[in-house]
Amino acid sequence: MYHLRTEYGWGPDKISKYMKKKGVLLGQPSVYRILKKKGVNRPLEKPRKRLKYIRWERDAPNDLL
Description:
Mean pLDDT: 85
Number of helices: 3
Structural class: mainly alpha
Largest sheet: none
Distance between the termini: 51 Å
Strand content: under 5%
């Protein structure tokens, strides 16, 4: 499992799906904990910026066009 992270750069979600295909049932949180414990996790240095919320509304109520 560690080589999938180091060689291919796969994240916990993709590793979890790959392992499921191979017959090993591990959830994404379990894979994340294992990678974190082994030190192959690369957490973000700073939080990602949230995309600005764009507000919109229709011209008239129940207007579908």
